[in-house]
Design a protein that fits this description.
The structure is a single chain. With 400 residues, the chain is an alpha/beta fold. The chain folds into two domains: 83 residues, no CATH class; 202 residues, Lysozyme. Helices cover 36% and strands 18% of the residues. The chain has 16 helices and 16 strands. The strands form five sheets. Strands 3-2-1-6-5-4 form a six-stranded mixed beta sheet, covered by helices on one side. A three-stranded mixed beta sheet has the order 9-8-10, with no helix packed on it. Strands 13-14-15 form a three-stranded mixed beta sheet. The longest helix has 18 residues. It starts with a strand and ends with a strand.
Amino acid sequence: MKSYWFSEHNGKLVCDVYDGSNRNIVRGKQAINILFELNELGDGKEEIDSKNYHSYEMEDGTVVRFNKKDNTLKLIENMFNNRATYEKQKKKPVKRGIQKTAVTVGLLVALVLGGKHLTDVKVDAGNQIEMETDDDSLDQSLFETIPEDSETEVVKETIETEVTPDTEEINAAIEETVEPLQVNVDVTSSTDDKLQENVERYEEYINENSSKWGISPSIIKAMMAHESSGGEVKNLMQIQFDSWNDQILTAYNAEEGRDIKLVLTDNPGNYTGQVDFTISRQELLNPKTNVSVASMILQYNAKEFNNNVCLTIIGYNLGTGATKTLINEAATQLGRTPEDLINDQTFTSYNQYYYVIKEKYGKNFGDPNYFQNIISKSNGDETFKIGFEDDDPEIQYITR
């Protein structure tokens, strides 16, 4: 079954296309073309309206979803009102008048107008016309400059105008306040009040370590919720001591403005003068220490994966070496380079390639759906970020 997830980023339409096995993300004109092709399929047979998206299921089973938490609907409305305007055709002869014609509501119009049939619609800058309709056929001239031989009843003289799309207003607003990158994740949110209460008891530790190590609180909270539900367990973030035993961990502490070296070890005397801290098995069970070490591990992973949030989280569960094996396999199968995938914050479907772990290491380990399970513990409104710089992207994962 094919699915299409539409969202907006930096004033451009983005479409995440998934056919059940392969995923492709297209932007701009390609996404627009897909949208208008889907519109011609007609109304969806089923509508699902959630706080995060509006969804249509078509007659053939195709699912189309529209993000409700960004400027997607406004952007689409502008495109519908004047497709030529959106494509930035400048100084076109435009006629003002009244066109009595029949216009289909299709998927797009149903979305923009909340499922109601189009009636008495005024088209904005560019092809400025008014329409009346109650019929079922789509007049494609809606999306084109009105030709000179149109049967439109002209009530004003032809004018020449400089087109100023509404999308420019959206872009200006985005430049002032950078919107998070919207990434769709095919998982159902499983947050509940009890889980949130459990995590909040450690909020002081979470916020403190977030600012120190450049890991957003939302990441630490979601991981804590998954690893231990924030309950009073001995190893809050489920750190595997033996996996890190006698391995010096270096992470940058923003509060002190320097690198901090730490080692988990049963033999602290072996590291005198080499590290800032040694952590014993017993000390690791202290919640404050546990959250701090987990945050340092996440930063360590982030350095390996260029602050890619998905890969940083996977690396926490799988280890950096095995995660690189996973990336290489995904790159091979997708015809991309590992560097390209590492730099792509929107690709999260690594669970398809976990078979390579057994092939290389002779056994299965790690949870193929670890990243999805972590994201399911977020509330959908939070943004995820790794890094201290302003240009490090904030990501909002949109769940079902």
